[in-house]
């Protein structure tokens, strides 16, 4: 993720002078880890409402998320669009990506690996794949327990897959084309970014137009086959890359464990304690103290 991913908000201040100057735009402060956590918590809380999926519109859903978020984080005041953008463009993509890597690690089913081992391995794989450390672990631990969020991720994945299939599929015979309606979304939690659309219907060609249409379909068919072959090649390449990572890990278990522990310890040492309750703060402080004792003991033994 790019370093500027945290800067989603823009604060506006009006200059009400006689010259009628344009409004000044002031960059809002970057989102902090406690803010991200409260945004995810607000999303989960609002998604539990029985109204979601029946009579609650998408705009209403996000207005409620914004309200719950600012009840927990009164300052800085984030615009409605900034809060929604932070979720849609930054938090959800990164956390969902990490969720997918965790599932891959679990599917690898390494003998003797504990849940903590799998999590550490997922953290390392994310760092290798994305080039940055995964910094939303608290948010992930919150969201992964939410049935609504897991359903949202599955729905999003299915829609993206269906969209790609429609884009790659050859056009049907114009003489048999029928309009197919896509129902409007009923659940703003899983489908708040758009509405159903009505695909256009091909007109029945006549005479020379029909001959041209048939020729056009033949060209499209060849193009579709090339697209499918290209997509399969990309999938095979990605699968090979991940398998190489897994195989490399299997041959270097000790090094993997050490690197995974380092990633986990780094996450603990760099976690912002602001916004945490006393028990959570005590947990991180005790963990940090244990990490430091272990490092000092290792340093002492290596110098003896």
TrEMBL record:
Residues 11-21, 169-184 have a biased composition (Polar residues). Residues 1-30, 155-209 are annotated as: Disordered. Coiled coil: none annotated. It comes from the Eukaryota. Residues 133-291 form the No apical meristem-associated C-terminal domain. It holds the Pfam family NAM-associated. This is No apical meristem-associated C-terminal domain-containing protein.
